[in-house]
Design goal:
Elements lengths: L5 E12 L4 E10 L4 E4 L2 H5 L6 E3 L5 E3 L2 H11 L19 E6 L6 E5 L2 H19 L9 H15 L13 H21 L7 H79 L3 H36 L6 H8 L6 H8 L10 H4 L6 H30 L5 H51 L20 H27 L29 H5 L19 H8 L2 E2 L12 E2 L14 H8 L84 E2 L2
Parallel strand pairs: 1-8, 4-10
Antiparallel strand pairs: 1-2, 1-7, 2-3, 2-9, 3-4, 5-6, 6-7
Helix pairs in contact: 5-6, 6-12, 6-13, 7-8, 7-9, 7-11, 7-12, 11-12, 12-13
GO cellular component, one term: adherens junction
Pfam families: Niban2, PH_Niban2
Family: Belongs to the Niban family.
Length: about 675
């Protein structure tokens, strides 16, 4: 688990309480599973008092202005737009709100005292949303794609083609969104006339009704989905026995079916591709390539700067004795929301102007988040490669000067490898995105003339094989094949142009380094344990004294470290209204200030979160090409990275010679259990 025994971020923010209509200071925590946890204050957290709320942010959007929010709320319930000058549904006492908006579930209202605070929390919460949206385990090579295909084909049966913005979260959340997509308009039509009061009051009532219905749908969908899964597991052995026995006949039957469908579909599909898809592929690809390539270049630059800063610190300050501290921080670079933000935000300008409506792309957010996940994976791969090669070098017992030379040489090797790996990942991303945009469009265009003819092909399938060969699946495969050639050709031509540092598929990797093929072997590196100073400890803010029987658990909690190592110590849970403003929870205004704080011994030792998310299933990380160690054992004491010195260097530019294969970051998350609302008023959100 990459973030095992770590806390991504913690600090104070102000939350609007709908029951009391007051703003209250909350101690907030983002644990390794990316669920935002809200406590009354830091003391309540340290004493293990149950949290006020645990928020799974899948499907949410972050809004940074009240105008945005009021517009969305007004659109969600037509006819309730507030008159000019009337009181809005929500008032924010500062100019820096942060609102979590969901089309069906309840909304969360936060505000900060400074713009820097707002930017920082926005980056952290956006990371939570990005992670929770990616809730279906990608290491599931069969069940995951089968589920998403089933959702897509169900929506196509309702004449809903194109991308779907609410295909996010785990399976139960996606099913709940699917139900609400149909149920929401019916409820709205039936209940809107019955809502009483002023426009803002009716808006508030509708949000509460929608949230209550969404919770009921979630619980029912969860029960039904688990029931379906158990039935499928029971039926699987018998189906596998038939497949193994009759595989040759099944394959022959499928090839015969595909040839017949191809003969019927191909002429129509080729005309459709030539007239309606082919002319637009270069434009779509260009729109995707520009921000994506900028984002991956930024990943490269951030990695280069962090390693160069570390190397200067080794030369000028700590030497080899401090290497454990520096590497401990570098190992978590891919999971640092603030340092990675400059990479992620390169995707924000992505637009498919003109093409979005033509191809029925409801939103580009699905492509933005996918590219951002790839960026994080490639950063993690680069850091892991660097860690492993440096660890090999340290086995030779180098002096400080030799170590600095080795770090520079290893950095160049890793960057060369990154250039090739990122090119491969980007080309795959472009191919997948083009298919995701064009295939639904083609199916929609062909449906009027082809869909009604498909049932007659059913007679070509033997009854014994009807469970394994589906006419509609074969039809979609044929349609995919008609456009795949054009997509592959477009990506290949883009690589030949070298406009965005893409490498040709035929390129030979010269001077390949054999050591890079061995990176996935061996135990995980514990930098704090091997190279750290065991006498250094964490900062203030340690938990309250524990009874002797809880000593072991407390010691484990005390070791929990933060990826963003700033814990704010404001503990007063004071409410405030739109009158005198409370003191601002202090926080760094930039990564530079953050590093300055990291140099000080300010870390409050943070206990691990005991309450998990109400997902029912873990939100998974994307798998990597090779398997890295499964867990990274945290060192015994918190450590901090001294502030890096400004470096006036440019990272080496991508070259034509790359080395090695992709390596992996750690894999899946631990299971997440179910919690519900209890008598103490603890709200657990999903």
């Amino acid at each position: 688990v990459p973030l095992d025994e770590r806390v991504i971020f913690s600090g104070n923010l102000f939350q609007y309480q709908e029951d009391s209509k007051k703003w209250r200071n909350r101690f907030s925590l983002v644990p390794h599973n990316y669920g935002l946890v809200l406590y009354d204050n830091k003391v309540a957290y340290e004493r293990q008092v149950p949290p006020r709320a645990i928020i799974n942010s899948a499907g949410y959007k972050i809004l940074t202005s009240l105008d945005q929010y009021l517009e969305l709320v007004g659109n969600s319930l037509p006819g309730t737009t507030s008159k000019s000058g009337s009181a809005p549904i929500l008032k924010c006492p500062t100019q820096f709100p942060l609102i979590l908006w969901h089309p069906y579930a309840r909304h969360y209202y936060f505000c900060m005292m400074t713009e820097a605070e707002q930017d920082k929390w926005q980056a952290v919460l956006q990371d939570c949303i990005r992670h929770c949206n990616n809730g279906i385990p990608e290491d599931s090579k069969v069940e995951g794609p089968a589920f998403t295909d089933a959702i897509r084909m169900y929506r196509q049966s309702k004449e809903l083609y194109g991308t779907w913005e609410m295909l996010c979260g785990n399976e139960v959340q996606i099913l709940s969104n699917l139900v609400m997509e149909e149920l929401g308009p019916e409820l709205k039509a039936e209940l809107t006339p019955r809502l009483k009061g002023k426009p803002q009051e009716r808006q508030r009532q509708w949000i509460q009704i929608s949230d209550a219905v969404y919770r009921m749908v979630y619980e029912q969908a969860k029960a039904r989905f688990e029931e379906v899964l158990s039935k499928l597991q029971l039926a699987r052995p018998a189906m596998e026995a038939v497949i193994r026995t009759d595989m040759d006949q099944i394959i022959t039957s499928k090839e015969h079916l595909a040839s017949k469908i191809r003969g019927f579909i191909l002429p129509k599909a080729e005309v459709c591709v030539r007239n309606h898809v082919q002319p637009y592929i270069p434009s779509i690809l260009e729109a995707l390539m520009v921000p994506t390539s900028q984002g991956f270049t930024e990943v490269r630059d951030v990695f280069f700067k962090e390693v160069t800063d570390m190397n200067l610190n080794v030369i000028n300050e700590g030497g080899i004795d401090k290497l454990g501290e520096y590497m401990e921080k570098l190992s978590q670079l891919a999971y640092h929301p603030l340092k990675m933000q400059s990479c992620y935000e390169k995707m924000e300008p992505l637009r498919l102007d003109g093409l979005q409506q033509r191809f029925d792309v409801s939103s580009t957010s699905v492509f933005k988040q996918r590219a951002q996940i790839h960026m994080r994976e490639q950063m993690d791969n680069a850091v892991y490669t660097f860690e492993t090669l440096l660890h090999q070098e340290l086995g030779k017992g180098p002096t400080k000067e030799e170590l600095c030379t080795s770090i520079q040489r290893i950095l160049e090797r890793v960057l060369k490898k990154y250039d090739y790996d990122s090119s491969t990942v980007r080309k795959r991303f472009f191919r997948e995105a083009l298919l995701q945009i064009t295939i639904p469009f083609l199916l929609k265009k062909l449906a009027p003339t082809c869909k009604s003819e498909l049932p007659r092909f059913q007679e070509l399938i033997f009854e014994d094989f009807a469970r394994f060969l589906l006419v509609e699946n074969t039809y979609e495969e044929v349609v995919l094949q008609t456009v795949m050639k054009d997509i592959l050709q477009a990506v290949k031509e883009a690589a030949v142009q070298r406009k965005h540092n893409l490498y040709r598929d035929s390129m030979v990797i010269h001077n390949s380094d054999p050591n890079l093929h061995l990176l996935a072997e061996g135990a995980p590196i514990d930098w704090g344990e091997e190279y750290g100073d065991s006498s250094s400890g964490g900062g203030g803010g340690s938990p309250s004294p524990s009874p002797p029987e809880a000593a072991t658990l407390s010691e484990k909690r005390r070791r929990a470290k933060q990826v963003v190592s700033v814990v704010q110590d404001e503990e007063a849970g004071l409410s405030f209204e739109a009158g005198p403003e409370p003191p601002s929870p202090a926080s760094p205004d930039s990564v530079t200030e953050l590093r300055g704080l990291l140099a000080q011994d300010l870390r409050a030792e943070s206990p691990l979160l005991a309450s998990p998310l109400l997902n029912g299933a873990p939100a998974q990380e994307s798998p990597q090409p090779l398997a890295a160690p499964e867990a990274s054992t945290p060192p015994t004491s918190p450590r901090h990275l001294p502030p890096g010195k400004a470096v006036d260097l440019e990272p080496p530019k991508p070259s034509d010679q790359e080395t090695g294969e992709q390596v992996s970051s750690p894999g899946s998350r631990p299971p997440i259990h179910i919690t519900t609302e209890d008598s103490a008023g603890v709200q657990t959100e999903f």
